Every structure is written in structure tokens, then in C-alpha cells.
């Protein structure tokens, strides 16, 4: 069991300035100290007075006084030049390896819209994020183990919470899913589909498939803003021989969470966008309430049930889990208010304490145990059905071989008959073609062709009679040959039958006279033949 502060870590990632953020209208209001894991937020001040700070304020920003700066320290700080590999190694690598060994783990990305949450969790094809890197590590690590008795089974699920409704991103028809208790203090999403995977490519195919269905919309801050919370789960089951003829199973669960971005409500936005923003902010507010309750001394009631997000992430927040929360922030002055709120929230979350332990003896929940039991049952059933059936199988095989031999004989006879018929048809076709060839030649002779004379007609008639007689003679010769062959076969068959009858009858003769009489009666016809 691992208990204490090390099970819940907080990281802050400062994204670089985006191309659309005009340098003259913005001031870098955040400084990241990667050595001391510190973030300093500088409150921007306008020379020209304004009611608020935002993209519509075109006054010149100036650097604030020291009294208007705030400093925050975290477990990990990542700057604008930090790579995706840096993020994975410092925030996720240890958790992924723990999950392979049977612990629960979670990586939660939170922050303002357009601050880099989805980029951190999923990344791009050129710069893969935590999910694809975790998938590679999982299968690489499993493949490196040399224990032949160990077996692994990896399965995944992918859901979103949009306007406080849960839907299955891998089975679009499954909407408005319910959260149920599992009887062991945990929860699960009813009818959420799970997919067994065998390599990292299959995981990425599922991610791509599900992400296409995730709710997005155009906001003031982002042209394609995620409007839902997304939770991608990887479950790793490990079964090994327990030394007593059974199987010891551990189950590690990795949740990779991309929260919808927080932002101020835009009263000029369309009604759908306003509704989405309200639901997102309410959900994130309840998320903050849970973090506050977990970090406030003396508070016993934790409001997990106030939102579906906190209900699903109950284990990740103060439960049996190793969790890293990555707070993403934008560096520009326009985002200062949201940045400060995110930094304060992340600072409070540092005080959460999780108790992580290996999930052992969970065979009733393990799919690998179910598969093993089914395999044993089927093998036993196969053995029972195979017992005493070998002889019957051999007999059946012999009968099939005999049947096949008879079919081959019939097939040979039919092929011979077909060959004779084909030859006759070919001869007929040849004669017809010859007649047409002759007729075509005469018809092209013109109006004075000899075909109109009596001599020509008589010649044609004689030729046709000659051809018919020749064809008839050929058929008669072929049929005569077949008849002779038939007679020879009939004679051989009769002779063979006589010999068989003679052999059977001869064994019953008791005197030499009877034998001679039998031989005279049955052998004489043969000699005469």
C-alpha cells in the first residue's frame, strides 16, 4: 500500500504564445521556473484605464509592481519549450508503469479553453501526447516480461460527459448512460462498451474513432473547442499461477481525462453555446468543491454525487489511485484572470491525499479469469465428446473414402459419355459450318449464279446425302464398338459370376464324384466359350 502525498501530484504546463495572439496587444504575464518548479504570475496593468482586461482593450500593457505578482510552487512545472516527451516522462511514465503492476492511475488535464489540455493528453500525429505514449509503454513493457506463466489482457473504454449526459464514444447508439455502484465502494458506467486490444495501434484506432464523435464548438478562444469532458480508460489484467493450481489476478486501471475548458459566459453567443458553457462551468465548479472538501481539515462529507464527472472520478480524487493533475495555462495578459484561477485551484489540489494499493484477488471482476474458466470448460467438454468416438470417426472416414471412390468412378463414366457427346456435337457443328461456307460462296455469285440451275441443285442434294451417309456410318461404327465393348464386359462379368458360384458350391461337395460332376457342369461352358 502507498499512502500519502506522493500519490497525488500537481503539474503546471505553460503553453507558448499562439500565432493569432498579436504581440503588440498582449503582455507575457506568466514566468515559469523549471528548476524550482515555480510559476510567477504578473498582473498586467493598462496605461489607459479600463473596466476589465481583455482582447478588446487596445491600451498598452506595462510590467506590474512586485506587489502585484504571485508565486506558486508545484511538483512539476513545464514551460513553453517543454516537449511532449518531457511531459510524459515527468507526469505520466511512473503512473503507467504502476498500472501495469496492478495499481489504479489517472492523468487529469484541466485549465482554460485553448490552454493545451487536449494537445497534452492526445497530441498530434507529429507530436503524440500522453495517450499514444502510454499505449506504447504498456505493450512494450508487457512484451519485455519473460515469465511464461503470466498472462495479460488489455481492454479499453471511451466516454464523454456532455451537458451532464454520459455517452459512449465507441458505441454512438449508447447515450444517457447511468452510473451504478459495484458493491465494493466503487462505481461503473452501466452498458459502457469495453474493447479488448492487442497492441498500441488498436488503441489509437479506437481513440481516433471516438474523438470524431466528441462534441466541439466554435468559441471566442478556440475554433474547435471541446465542449465535453472525455475519459479514456485502459484496464490491464495480469493473471499468473498462484502456486496452488489456481490463478492470482491483478487489475490496473488507467484513466486519461481531458476536461472541458473553463471560460467566461459570452452573453452574445448563441443559445446552444451558452447552454454548453453553463453546464461546463457547473461541472467544473462541482469538481472544485470536491477538491476543496478533500483539502479542508475536518470536512467529512465529500460531494462526489453533485456531478457525474466527480462521481466517475471518485477513486482519482482522494481514493485508491495514483493521480497526476496537469493544469494548463495560457501565458498572455488576456487570459490572466483564468490563469490565476487555474493556478489557485492547482495549488489547493496539491493537498489531496490518495491511498493507492494493488488491486489483488479481484477474480470476480477480471475478464481474464472469465476467459480462463470458459477455456477450461470448453476443453473438458471437448474431451468428453472425444472419448469413445475415435473408432466411430475412423469408420465414418472409411465410409466417406469408399463413397468418394464410387463418386470418382461415376464421374469418370460421365466424363467419357460427355466426351463422346462433345465429339459428336463437334462433328455436327463442323458439317453445318461446311455447308454454310459452301452456301455463302454461291450466294455471293450474283443474279446469274449457277445455284439456280437444275444441275447445281442436284449436285447439292448428292453432296448432302453423301455427308449424311458418311456421318451415319461414323455413328454406326462408334455404336458398334460400344456394343462390342458392352458384350465383352457382360461376358467377363458372367464368367466371373460362374467362377464365384463354382467356388462356393465346390466347398460343399463331399465326394470325388460330386466334384467331377460339378466341374463338368460348370467348367464345360467356360471351355466352350
Automatic annotation (TrEMBL):
Keywords: ATP-binding, Coiled coil, Cytoplasm, Cytoskeleton, Microtubule, Motor protein, Nucleotide-binding
Residues binding ATP, per UniProt: 111-118
InterPro entries given in the database record: Kinesin-like_fam, Kinesin_motor_CS, Kinesin_motor_dom, Kinesin_motor_dom_sf, P-loop_NTPase
Name of one Pfam family that matches: Kinesin
Cell compartments where the protein resides: Cytoplasm, Cytoskeleton
Domain Kinesin motor: 7-352
Gene Ontology MF annotations: ATP binding; microtubule binding; microtubule motor activity
GO cellular component: microtubule
Highest taxon in the source lineage: Eukaryota
Signal peptide: none
SMART domains per the UniProt record, alphabetical: KISc
Similarity annotation: Belongs to the TRAFAC class myosin-kinesin ATPase superfamily. Kinesin family.
Name of the protein in question: Kinesin-like protein
Amino acid at each position: 500500500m502507498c499512502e500519502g502525498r506522493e500519490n497525488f501530484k500537481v503539474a503546471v504546463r505553460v503553453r507558448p504564445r499562439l500565432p493569432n495572439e498579436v504581440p503588440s496587444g498582449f503582455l507575457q504575464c506568466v514566468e515559469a521556473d523549471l528548476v524550482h518548479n515555480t510559476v510567477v504570475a504578473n498582473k498586467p496593468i493598462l496605461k489607459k484605464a479600463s473596466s476589465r482586461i481583455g482582447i478588446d482593450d487596445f491600451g498598452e500593457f506595462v510590467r506590474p509592481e512586485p506587489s502585484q505578482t504571485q508565486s506558486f510552487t508545484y511538483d512539476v512545472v513545464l514551460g513553453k519549450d517543454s516537449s511532449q516527451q518531457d511531459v510524459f516522462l515527468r507526469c505520466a511514465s511512473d503512473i503507467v508503469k504502476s498500472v501495469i503492476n496492478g495499481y489504479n492511475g489517472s492523468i487529469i488535464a484541466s485549465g482554460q479553453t485553448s490552454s493545451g489540455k487536449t494537445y497534452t493528453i492526445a497530441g498530434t500525429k507529429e507530436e503524440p501526447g500522453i495517450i499514444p505514449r502510454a499505449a506504447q509503454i504498456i505493450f512494450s513493457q508487457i512484451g519485455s516480461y519473460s515469465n511464461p506463466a503470466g498472462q495479460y489482457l488489455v481492454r479499453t473504454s471511451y466516454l464523454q460527459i456532455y451537458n451532464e449526459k454520459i455517452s459512449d464514444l465507441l458505441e454512438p447508439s449508447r447515450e444517457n448512460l447511468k452510473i451504478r455502484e459495484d458493491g465494493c465502494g466503487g462505481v461503473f458506467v452501466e452498458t459502457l462498451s469495453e474493447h479488448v486490444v492487442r497492441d498500441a495501434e488498436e488503441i489509437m484506432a479506437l481513440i481516433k474513432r471516438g474523438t470524431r464523435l466528441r462534441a466541439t464548438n466554435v468559441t471566442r478562444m478556440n475554433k474547435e473547442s471541446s465542449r465535453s469532458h472525455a475519459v479514456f480508460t485502459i484496464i490491464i489484467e495480469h493473471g499468473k499461477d498462484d502456486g496452488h493450481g489456481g490463478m492470482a489476478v491483478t487489475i490496473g486501471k488507467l484513466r486519461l481525462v481531458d476536461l472541458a475548458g473553463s471560460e467566461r459566459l459570452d452573453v452574445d453567443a448563441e443559445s446552444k453555446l451558452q447552454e454548453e458553457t453553463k453546464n461546463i462551468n457547473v461541472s467544473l465548479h462541482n469538481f472544485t468543491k470536491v477538491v476543496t472538501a478533500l483539502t479542508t481539515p475536518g470536512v467529512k462529507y465529500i460531494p462526489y454525487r453533485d456531478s457525474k464527472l466527480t462521481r466517475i472520478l471518485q477513486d482519482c480524487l482522494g481514493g485508491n489511485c495514483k493521480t497526476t493533475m496537469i493544469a494548463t495555462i495560457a501565458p498572455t495578459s488576456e487570459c490572466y484572470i483564468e490563469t490565476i484561477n487555474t493556478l489557485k485551484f492547482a495549488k489547493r489540489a496539491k493537498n489531496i491525499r490518495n491511498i493507492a494499493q494493488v488491486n489483488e484477488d479481484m477474480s470476480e471482476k477480471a475478464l481474464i479469469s472469465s476467459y480462463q474458466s470458459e477455456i477450461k470448460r470448453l476443453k473438458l467438454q471437448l474431451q468428453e465428446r472425444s472419448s469413445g468416438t475415435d473408432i466411430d470417426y475412423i469408420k465414418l472416414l472409411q465410409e466417406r473414402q469408399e463413397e468418394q471412390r464410387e463418386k470418382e468412378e461415376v464421374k469418370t463414366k460421365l466424363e467419357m459419355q460427355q466426351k463422346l457427346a462433345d465429339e459428336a456435337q463437334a462433328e455436327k457443328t463442323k458439317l453445318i459450318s461446311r455447308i454454310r461456307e459452301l452456301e455463302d460462296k454461291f450466294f455471293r455469285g450474283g443474279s446469274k449464279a449457277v445455284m439456280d440451275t437444275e444441275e447445281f441443285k442436284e449436285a447439292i442434294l448428292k453432296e448432302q446425302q453423301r455427308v449424311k451417309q458418311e456421318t451415319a456410318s461414323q455413328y454406326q461404327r462408334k455404336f458398334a464398338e460400344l456394343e462390342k465393348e458392352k458384350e465383352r464386359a457382360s461376358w467377363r462379368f458372367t464368367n466371373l459370376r460362374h467362377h464365384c458360384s463354382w467356388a462356393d458350391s465346390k466347398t460343399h461337395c463331399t465326394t470325388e464324384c460330386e466334384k467331377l460332376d460339378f466341374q463338368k457342369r460348370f467348367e464345360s461352358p467356360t471351355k466352350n466359350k
